[in-house]
Amino acid sequence: MVFWEGYVSDEAMGTFAPIVVYWLYAGFYQLLPPLDNYRLHTKKEEVKNSVPLASVVKGVLLQQLVQATVAQALFLLTSKVNASGIVIQPSIAVQIGQIVVAMLVMDTWQYFVHRYMHQNKFLYRHVHSQHHRLVVPYAIGALYNHPLEGLLLDTFGGALSFLVSGMTARTAVIFFCFAVIKTVDDHCGLWLPGNVFHIIFQNNTAYHDIHHQLQGLKYNYSQPFFPIWDKLLGTYMPYNLVKRPEGGFEARAMKD
């Protein structure tokens, strides 16, 4: 049983819940006070961002429109109902296994596509550089990408994770909402005490902040869950989290 059963289909929830969760979680961060003692960048550094908030919001909405269209089509094409018109849900243990598989598939897809977009000068200049206009990341900009990148990196990556894992639309609701929350948190620009993502995941806000720095552009490609591929393929850049005298923290790359 899930709270939406009888009110909204699993397919509709899998399509729209991640979008709602994105704006709720990113909006929460946006509405927080400055919190200068926990910022990874000072407010003055935000002038490095070369795109206004309104353009970021439009870009994110466009990507979500594409994602919703693909998700709805994917759910309709893969729906498995029995003779009674009911989808049999696997056990909790199986669903957890499917989510773990989906996390690994998504990480693998995003690592190699993300890395290639940095290595291919044409793709970086005309596609991926749009995301790096946010030198100082913030939550709402987590999915601010060129439309082609949004399609290749996020939409196709999500579809592949869903298909390979074999999860149902109901399990996909949980997985995609969790992936959205993790992605937003990785871009929030804050190192808050007790943040569960910072405790559990080595690939977190500071880890991804290194990638947005000039010296880290060719490192820390892994997203959104684990740093496995970075460590295996030599693109892992460790860092120190240094407290700034004026307040806040700095993720400082540790070069070899």
Automatic annotation (TrEMBL):
Gene Ontology biological process terms from the UniProt entry: lipid biosynthetic process
GO MF entries: iron ion binding; oxidoreductase activity
Top-level taxon of the source organism: Eukaryota
Sequence intervals crossing the membrane: 12-32, 53-77, 92-113, 134-153, 159-181
UniProt keyword list: Membrane, Transmembrane, Transmembrane helix
Places the protein is found: Membrane
Protein name: Fatty acid hydroxylase domain-containing protein
Source species of the chain: Carpinus fangiana
